[in-house]
């Protein structure tokens, strides 16, 4: 919640906010840079996440095709993969592009993600099992090269340092570093 006081923070979940309002917030989160790959990745993801709500259902097929095309373009052009099933919080900032596979159960609010980050199951065969995917809570910092694997949770406000591999749950506020990741005392 950088730059915002507790009094001005909108506490609605991403699902409760109209899509256009979310896109405007994502634009501000990405420093009002319309050319930011992170902005486009998040915006396209949000479109896909809302497609099940489109009425009438006859309008869905062209929107599904548009989402599939845009999602593939974001993946191929900038190397950012955000599966549609991921529950994405608000004010998520993807700072860099390239080699980002963000296959998690959920990513909370005010999360910062840098390049070469991988979130996913330990084994590829488990990629469709939600319990084998990580949960990233609010306010987490994922540094360059961070790798969070398996059904673990990275607690609120935790920092995953550069090139760290997380295979166990990390408590709130902890800083973790190394391969395998170890908590650094403060």
Topology record:
Layout: H1 19-29, H2 37-50, H3 60-78, E1 80-81, E2 87-88, E3 93-94, E4 100-102, E5 106-107, E6 112-113, E7 118-120, E8 135-136, E9 141-142, E10 147-149, E11 153-154, E12 159-160, E13 165-166, E14 175-177, E15 182-184
Parallel strand pairs: 1-4, 2-5, 3-6, 4-7, 5-8, 6-9, 7-10, 8-11, 9-12, 10-13, 12-14
Antiparallel strand pairs: 14-15
Helix pairs in contact: 1-2, 2-3
Offer a concise description of the structure.
This protein has helices at 19-29, 37-50, 60-78, and strands at 80-81, 87-88, 93-94, 100-102, 106-107, 112-113, 118-120, 135-136, 141-142, 147-149, 153-154, 159-160, 165-166, 175-177, 182-184. With 186 residues, it is of the alpha/beta class. Strands 3-6-9-12-14-15 form a six-stranded mixed beta sheet. Strands 1-4-7-10-13 form a five-stranded parallel beta sheet. A four-stranded parallel beta sheet has the order 2-5-8-11.
């Amino acid at each position: 919640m950088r730059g915002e006081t507790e009094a001005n923070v909108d506490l609605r979940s991403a699902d409760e906010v109209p899509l256009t309002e979310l896109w405007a917030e994502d634009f501000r989160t990405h420093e009002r840079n319309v050319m930011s790959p992170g902005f486009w990745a998040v915006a396209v993801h949000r479109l896909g996440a809302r497609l099940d709500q489109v009425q009438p259902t006859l309008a869905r097929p062209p929107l599904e095709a548009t989402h599939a095309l845009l999602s593939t373009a974001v993946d191929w052009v900038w190397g950012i993969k955000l599966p549609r099933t991921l529950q994405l919080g608000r004010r998520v900032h993807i700072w860099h592009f390239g080699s980002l596979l963000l296959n998690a159960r959920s990513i909370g609010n005010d999360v910062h993600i840098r390049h070469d980050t991988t979130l996913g199951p330990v084994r590829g065969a488990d990629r469709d099992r939600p319990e084998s995917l990580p949960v990233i809570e609010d306010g987490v910092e994922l540094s360059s090269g961070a790798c969070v694997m398996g059904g673990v949770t990275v607690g609120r406000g935790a920092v995953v340092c550069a090139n760290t591999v997380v295979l166990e749950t990390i408590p709130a506020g902890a800083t973790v570093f190394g391969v395998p990741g170890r908590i650094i005392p403060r």
